[in-house]
Hints:
Helix content is 26%, strand content 22%. The protein has two helices and nine strands; from the N terminus they run H-H-E-E-E-E-E-E-E-E-E. The protein has a five-stranded antiparallel sheet with strand order 3-2-1-5-6, covered by helices on one side.
Amino acid sequence: MNQFLSSRPHKGFTLVELMLTVAILGMLMMMTGYALRGLQPRAHLSSGAHEVAIALKGAKARAIAQNNPVWFGWFVPQDDTGRIQYAVFDEPADGFDPNDPTVGPGNLPRLLSSGRLNWRVRAANGQMFGDLADLPAPFQTVNPMSVDDSGCSFCDGTPPVGWIRFLPRGEIRLFPGDETDGAAIVMTSVPVAGEVAGNDVRFIAVTSPFGLVKVFSNQM
Length: 220
């Protein structure tokens, strides 16, 4: 029996078969790599928008729970070398002046939280968002189409800066800006090298007067 088994020829892979298998695996890995690279900008955009929405909701909840106003600051870089930043802080007992030109993300009083979005996430003109017909109430009153290249309906200056003040009853006040229609933040993502820029956009709506927050995508 052993002699019979040992006398049978052993069949393995030929060199051509091995080379073909390696080539196929290499092509599959390359295709997967390109696909994943293409998803990175959208992933950073989505996570950044939801991070900001959580910060806004947290500011409102804290203002109500602590019976004290809470501020949300939004800081847009002047050019593509910077990163969008935000900050959440309690209003000091002696108040806070949003018109103070010396105030920035690095010297805010009673800071609660802050963040810098991924470098791929950029402010976007509201015209990029597109049709608003499907937005549910009460968010249809917040119109991103009027947002300029600062990506912020309540921002002003160079570089653009804006403030949302959440009151203990949940209402919002915008500085600068008119809170009649609420606040709109619009952002997009930067494509990776070699890719054509897409039109993936996120729109964060904050309603007035009661500061409801929701993220919308033009890819719905």
